[in-house]
Amino acid sequence: MRRIIRKWIPIFIATTSGLLALAGYLFPDTGLSVYRDRLVEWAVIIGAFALILGVFNVLRVHGQRILESGKGQVYSVVLLVAALVSFVPPLVYGPTDSLTRGMVDYVITPLGGALAALVVFTLTLSAVRMLRHRRGPSSLLFIVVVILTLLGTTPLRGFEWLSEIRSWLVGVPGMAGVRGLLLGVALGTVITGIRVLLGSERPHSEF
Amino acid sequence: MIHCPNCGTANRKGSRFCNECGKSLPSTGMRCPMCDTINPVGNVYCQQCNARLVPMSSGPEDEEAEETTSPIKGFSLPTIPLDETAEEEEEEAAEPTGEGEAPPGDWLDDLRGSADEQDEGSEEGEEGEDERAVIAEEEDLEPADIPDWLSELGPVTEGPQAPVDVDAGPEEEGPAPEEVPEGDLLEAASAEEADVTERVPPSAQDIGPSDDEEAPSSEEIRPPEPAEIPDWLRELGPAMEETPSPAEDEPPMDQALRTEESEDAPPQQPEAEDRDREEAPAWLRELSLPDEEEKAPRPGPTAAEREPSVDEAEATAIEIPDWLKDVEGGQPPESPEELTTEGDVFAPEEPAEEAQEEEPPPKPVAIPSWLKEAEGEEAPGEETPVPFTEPLPEAMETPDWLTELMKPTPGEEEASPFEAEPGMGEAWETDLERADIPSWVQELRPSQDKDEEPVRGPMETEGLLKGLRGLIPAATIGVPTAFEGPSRAQPSEASLARAELFQSLLGQPAIPPAERPIPEERERKRGFASAVERWLVAAILAFAVLSILLAPVMTGQTPRLTQPLMTSGAAAVRNAVDGLDAGDQVLVAFDYGPPEADELNAAARPVLTHVLERGARLSIVSTRPDGSLMAGAVMADVASSRDQYALIGYRPGAAAAVSQLLAVTDSEPALILVLTSRPMPLRLWIEQAYARYGDGLPLIAVGSAALEPVASPYLDANAGQLRGAIHGYKGAASYEALRGSLGSAAGRLDALAAGHIVIVILIVLGALIHALVRTEGEKP
Predict the structure, then answer these.
(1) With contacts defined as CB-CB under 8 Å, which chain B residues touch A179?
(2) Quick one: which of A74, A155, B202, B334 has the most CB atoms within 10 Å?
(3) How many domains does chain B have?
């Protein structure tokens, strides 16, 4: 009985819901789209609960680390304080209040930009040191492509032809690779969907 | 049968798992005295330590006999699963038939044979129930309760009687005695038992002769025929015939008995006799209880001189084994009633008259070793058994149960146990001189030191034998005095050298080539150079970017390093926005966060400004929690009024959220604008919007520069899933250029161009340096 409850009932629910949503897309004029939209709405609500649970889980983990005086408890304290500070203003004054916007514009966004800038610096340094550790045609080709792409991204005056080269690199070799990735993702999504509908794939069940 | 401890299902003997529930069944086997490993019955050596499990024999013939005749194991007491033994004991105790009178334990199952024979024996046992009842009342003796190992001890306790081979169970199949060749004694022994089984009902087998039969006297006890002689005695026949006069060559019985005791009999514990009796199992206590009554009818040393009474005769007749009956008759019994099968009786059952008439002269080959030694003093065929000349040596410690069985009558408390043996008591009292052991007997002497104290076996901790010591023959007899484990081959020097080399290699830490230790000075220099390199790159980058950004502030002029280009994507976006009418609803998705905010905000502002200028109404949503914050910051800059847009906020659920957003929209949006820097949100929006609206709904995107390769497939004219897209500062500058007013995006594009130029220069310099200049550590 326990196995039936924990295995077959979730499979039945998942298969029925998936088939109903799929039928709603395939046959939108049959009224199934109503059930499809209702199921999608339930999924959104469940996703919201999952977000709340995730927030509480982060707070619990770091709170427990502080109580146990574990390693990195200082960072946990900073995280909890930051979470509390960033949570109170939007809750009290709303998400469009000046205090909330100031916190976003002068704290969160600059810190995010700084992190992205560190990526630029790291990539630049790695490219400079590249031939130290790896010498060969592939490295040379990589360097050439990087130079052309960088210079073509920004249309320098007098070097507009570099933009054409860059457009060709992005539009032909780059698009070929991306199309392959997209096709692979699409096929994987279809296969995963079929497996879930048939009960072979049970991400929602323990069995 | 082996009963499952889990479900109680009876499984066939030898089964390892229950047929019903699949649980493991208790294993049946002999416990190794050295390592306590349970070995299968029949193993001579332990599977674990190769210790010998069966008793040591005096010659190779005995080992062969043990191996060829598995039931005959000398005085071995098979180790049995305890639970099984207890259950079968209970079952057999509940059975009223003759089968239930058999001694309990799985080790007797080997003697029982198939179930059909058991059933047959049960039916036949009912027929002889009356006879058994009479005998039981008179003697209160349960001959059937005497196990095989005790039956084999019969010759030791009863002197002239030949060893009763009860190991060859009554149900063992074998040829009839008359079919057995004279020379093959072991087969004849088992065949004789099998023949009796076939013709004698179990009751008769258990209780011996009926009341109608005449009780045999002690004089009728004769050594068995050659069929009862084991192999190790068979070769003694010719030697016995050549035995010199008994006065000269009489072997000392103490040595002979000691030999047998040290080999076969478990040690005795006289001081713990009472305790052992209390701890002894039920079947063993039953053997002990009737000893008083058992001793009275047992033919004593004077039984040959006096005329036995009817009761005594009957009692004696019960103790006559079947093999002796056959021996005395010299031919197979004519009727089943004349036979007794169980070897646990020690007196012949043939009628006295018939026995006297047909009694053949005792054949030396039918006498066991200990008796043969004594018999060698007298002429063959002499009816009087060879008396013992010395009392039982102290070294021979008979077990308590055997002592109790040998206890004489109350009037003979102090007499030797051998006085109870027929024909032995008289010789015991005569105190004959001790004779030398003949050479052929010396050869039979086991390798054990006769002066050595008998080894006490480990105390049994479970089963019927719990609390008893030395009852397992393997522990007391079969263990060599100095057991040596399996010999190990000495490794050669070359092997040792290779092993040492391998060990030394294993002991060295695994150091990859990249992490090979380098001199400290070189490491220090390299660290310094690396740090300088990092700081130099960072400083150049910062200077290049900041110089462009700060130039308007410092010089009042904006340097223009780039020329915005009119891209097709930017043109498509502009056309899509230009198609909006006032009041149209535009769904804007802010799916980016603070790390990408600077680039996306710069790219989104010209487009959103254009949309607002068209008079469209914005509905702003996000599938990221921080997306709404980004939206608030951007819209605060581009929107002149809060009424121009509606901030719906965050929608969890990814694809489901997008689908749900599209479903709950009151009216079909005129345009969907996706602002994102990652491929996943863009793909979700494209898929869900195209699935719902098809080609009819224009969807445009504003993304980062890194998103351009991913979005380019959707921008294909044949696909039609994405009307247009602008990416990064370049796209924003293009859009501003299309609209005729360069804004912040063009300025940031110049700073970006400066950064790119510096990066390219650094890469080229680094490549040249590292390609042309080799450091000291990199030189081969």
Answers:
(1) 713
(2) B202
(3) 2
Q: Does residue A128 belong to any structural domain of this protein? A: no
Q: Which of residues 568-627 of B touch A (CB under 8 A)?
A: 593-598, 625-626
In a domain, B502, yes or no: no
Q: What domain range is A24 assigned to?
A: 1-93
Closest residue by Cα to residue B125 from B164, B92, B97, B166: B97
Whole-angstrom distance, CA of residue B89 vs CA of residue B95: 10
| A176 at B interface, C-beta within 8 A | no
Secondary structure of B120-131 as H, E, C letters: HHHHHHHHCHHH
**Closest residue in B to A26 (Cα–Cα):** B691
Interface touch B541/A174, C-beta < 8 Å:
no
Give B552-571 pLDDT, tens digit per residue.
888 877 778 888 778 888 88
pLDDT one-digit tens code per residue, B11-36? 777 677 777 777 777 766 677 788 87
Please report whether residue A186 resides in a domain. no
Q: Which residues of chain B neighbour A153 with C-beta distances below 8 Å? A: 705, 728, 730, 752, 756
| Residues A22-56: tens digit of each pLDDT | 888 888 778 887 888 888 888 888 888 888 899 89
Q: Is residue B686 domain-resident?
A: yes
For the residues of B328-344, what is the DSSP string, one character each?
A: HHTS--SSGGG----TT
Position of tokens 């590249």?
A: A130
What mean pLDDT value characterizes chain B? 64
Among the partner residues B630, B647, B660, nearest to A44 by beta-carbon distance: B660
User: Does A127 contact B759 at a Cβ distance shorter than 8 Å?
Assistant: yes
Phi-psi region of B269 (alpha: psi -120 to 50; beta: other; left: phi over 0): beta
| DSSP element (H, E) containing B207 | helix B202-207
Confidence bin at B462 (pLDDT 50/70/90): confident
Q: What CA–CA distance (Å, rounded) separates B53 from B39?
A: 9
CATH number of the domain that residue B626 is part of:
3.40.50
Residue ranges making up the domain that contains B93: 84-301+334-403
Q: Can you give the pTM of this predicted structure? A: 0.46
Q: Is B619 helix (H, G, I), strand (E, B) or coil?
A: strand
The count of domains in chain A is 1
CB contact under 8 A, B656 and A50: no
- Whether B263 is in a domain gets the answer yes
Which residue in B has a C-alpha nearest to residue A104's C-alpha?
A: B629
